[in-house]
Amino acid sequence: MLEYLRFALSAALMACGLFVLMVGVVGVYRFRYVLNRMHAAAMNDTLGILFVLLSLIVAEGATFTSLKLVLVILMLWITSPVSSHLVCRLEITTNEHIEREMEVHK
Q1: Are 5 and 47 in contact (CB under 8 A)?
Q2: Torsion sign (Cα): 33, 34, 36, 37
Q3: Using an 8 Å Cβ cutoff, are 13 and 51 in contact?
Q4: What are φ and ψ of residue 96, in 5° steps?
């Protein structure tokens, strides 16, 4: 019985993660400007990957592999927002027509 509950929770977390990632893909295609696209991608990547990896942790159980997945989650939660911020700053500094497209503060 416990195995069915663990499977159901894992499937629910995986479905939530895939839904969040799918919404992120729609956001990337929907928005017109690169900064809006980066915002949609960065916000949904972090949450979507969290749900997917939590699903894998629940499916695996309390093992050494689960500890490794927790470390992957922590690393992604640190590096994903930083890399997105750096790519957006690069776009602001290199695109000379950014002020015509949107309001930015340099």
Answers
A1: no
A2: positive
A3: yes
A4: -80, -15
Residue type, 25: V
Tokens of 83: 């890399």
Domain limits of the chain?
2-101
Task: Give the mean model confidence (pLDDT) for residues 36-60.
Answer: 89
pTM above 0.85, yes or no: no
Alpha carbon 16 to its chain centroid, in Å, reads 12
Q: Flag the least confident range among 20-24, 81-85, 94-98.
A: 94-98
pLDDT at 52: 94
What is the SS3 assignment for 44-97? HHHHHHHHHHHHHHHHHCCCHHHHHHHHHHHHHHHHHHHHHHHHHHHHHHHCCC
